[in-house]
Amino acid sequence: MRLLISWQAVEPEPGHYDDTYLDAVAERVDWYGERGYHVMLDMHQDLYGDSVIPGVGTGNGAPAWATHTDGLPIGEHDMWELYYLDPGVIRAFDNFWNTTGEHPELRTHYVNAWKAVAERFSEDPTVIAYDLMNEPYGGSLQGPAFEAGPLTALYQDATDAIRTVDTTTWVCVEPQAMGVNWGTPSGLGPINDPREGEPRVALCPHLYPLPLDLGGGYTGVTRSFVRGTMDTWLGNTMRTAERLGDVPVVLGEFGLDTTLPGSIAYVEDVYEMADEHGFGVAYWSRDPGSWGPYDEGGAPRNLVDVIARPYPRSATAPIGTIRARADRLEFFVAAGDDRQATVHVPESLSPGDGRP
Questions:
Q1: Which phi and psi angles does 131 have, rounded to 5°?
Q2: pLDDT for 83-130, tens place per residue?
Q3: Percent of the chain with pLDDT over 90
Q4: Which secondary structure element, helix H or strand E, spans residue 329, and what is its range?
Q5: Which of 52, 58, 201, 282 could tie 2 with a disulfide, CB 3.0–4.6 Å?
Q6: Could you give all domains of the chain from N- to C-terminal order, each with its CATH number?
Q7: DSSP state of 151
């Protein structure tokens, strides 16, 4: 379960970390732990924060005290993604990354907020990963200059800070969203994990082929275009993972309006691609409605049968290719003397005699 948390809630005032909020997060983590889930905590942001446009609530992530648009204009848009192109939003990010040279303290606060989160959850067996930033955006700095520069530097500083209080939980790093979500190459640099033993750093890109992101279906010519995007995304992701030290990959987010034609076939194809290469997957979203598995009344929708699938949860040797169907699961692990695995079997496939 990729569970969203917020910098503005973790650190509502500079240097003050809200224990009440972290307790509420811990309560929700326990809900998942009691049901057999593991949790990835994701420091979420969209459009920097909800104070980029005071009183409107557009965006989420950064606290008001860390938001500096410098009075530059921000328009009104029907598509929320277009706000990323407004001068005020760009300036807020430029100040965070210190591209302006005016606010070097902001990224330090962000790093220390992660340290506070890691200290709170370092002993929690349910939390197995920290997703350091949702869909990073470089403001006026884009592409390899952003990813190999300030983004990699932030990830390294956050990893170093986390490791002073937590040496076991995985650290997940995302490329920039702009372009990479659509299949373009990433310029993200390697992260050195200071923990003893094998590093625990994973690459967690998102996948949103542009035709689907714009509300198109998965049929005809559009399907062919999306398949091409998926192939390009896969190749670039594998090359990035190798460059980062042959790190494992988690598809950190994908999804779509499942009322669109061909949408379920797309979800199935994404899972098959992930299975072939042993990727973990986090589907977005749990919200009720056309993107989620349940409707507003809690009744299951068409997505449930696709996501309720058998898969290996863990193994004592590296897991290779996975082949999952509604009624069958095959997977391959590296050779060894003591090979054991834990497998998830949906309730619909259980033997019916109380056994898992």
A1: -90, 110
A2: 999 999 999 999 999 999 999 999 999 999 999 999 999 999 999 999
A3: 79
A4: strand 328-333
A5: 282
A6: 2-313 (3.20.20.80), 314-356 (no CATH)
A7: I
